[in-house]
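Open question from group meeting: does this chain pack into something compact, or does most of it stay loose? Before anyone orders reagents, we agreed to write out a predicted structure and look at it together. Recording both the input and the output here so the notebook holds the full record.
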Amino acid sequence: MNAMRRAAAALAVTAALFLAGCSSTSGSPDGSATGGPTGTRPDDRKVSGLRGITLPSWNTDDYDRPEAGQFLRQIADTGARWVTFTPTWYQDGLTDSGMHTTEETAGDDSLRHIIGLAHSTGLKVMVKPHVDLVKGQDRAEIRPADRDAWFAAYGRFITHYARLAADTGAEQLAVGTELAGTSQDGARWSRVVAAVRKVYGGPLTYAANYDEYKKVPFWGDLDVIGIDAYWPLAEKATTDATGLREAWKPIGDELAAFSARWHRQILFTEAGYVSQRGTTTAPYSWTVSKRSGDDEQAAAYEALLAAFDGKPWWAGVCWWMWDDWPGSGETAKRLAYTPHGKPAERVLRQWWGAH
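Structure tokens returned:
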């Protein structure tokens, strides 16, 4: 069998496992994972495709708020089968050696609470911890002066959430998000992943930014390649879903080849578009313009789903994001990433079979 056929065969096996579904994990009394044997090779694990939406937190008690159950029911009503939660710790500076909780970090009890609510709503859960900067700089710019100290601190941070994910039966875990300033350090990240696997038995991913994923050397340690899919698709504002789908084609070709190289499916751990004119020119931006762009947002949703649905290497998408918690959103809902109550929500319902 030649190299290309071997790659295709290996990808077919992992795709079959991915589509077979993810076994729920639960924790043992000593905090170790019981959702799967530790030390299992990633290729042997079952992972599930995602039709998901992120519900981020911005304050300690967000996931305890009365709106939590309503938000989860609304997410499920779109046809979504997954929800992602994002507890966040913070660094004071880009070169610091560690991260810490703040009043904006979701409390552990609130995270346990909302994971339980999600499961009772019929949604599977991905826990996707973030590290951000107190002063708002880009997390991709984190470059610790003492890398050994930073990775030791990061290991404590992520294994904390690995234990919580195991204890609550969360079905998937991201070991990191958009940490491009550290993600090329394959040896240290491999040790982080190994530590996580000792306490969490479910499938693992890492959420690389769209301009970072090719530089990540430790995909082989994980079960699925995660990409935050904020590729610019147009040079000017457009509502042409067909043209946007065409813009995805060369990107899709690159992703298919990358998937075959690593024998892993690719999950869009984030993808999203603000309801602003020009959003497809800079999907990563919260402030493209002050003009509403509901139709452009909907066209972008349609184009992404049409471009990738059914691709054997594609593991699905978790959209960024559902509604902000009352009083916490810095962007008005009519201009924000949420598809709720907009034409983009109708696109989701059509593709995901909601009634």
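Observations to bring back to the group:
The mean pLDDT is 89.
The chain has eight helices and ten strands.
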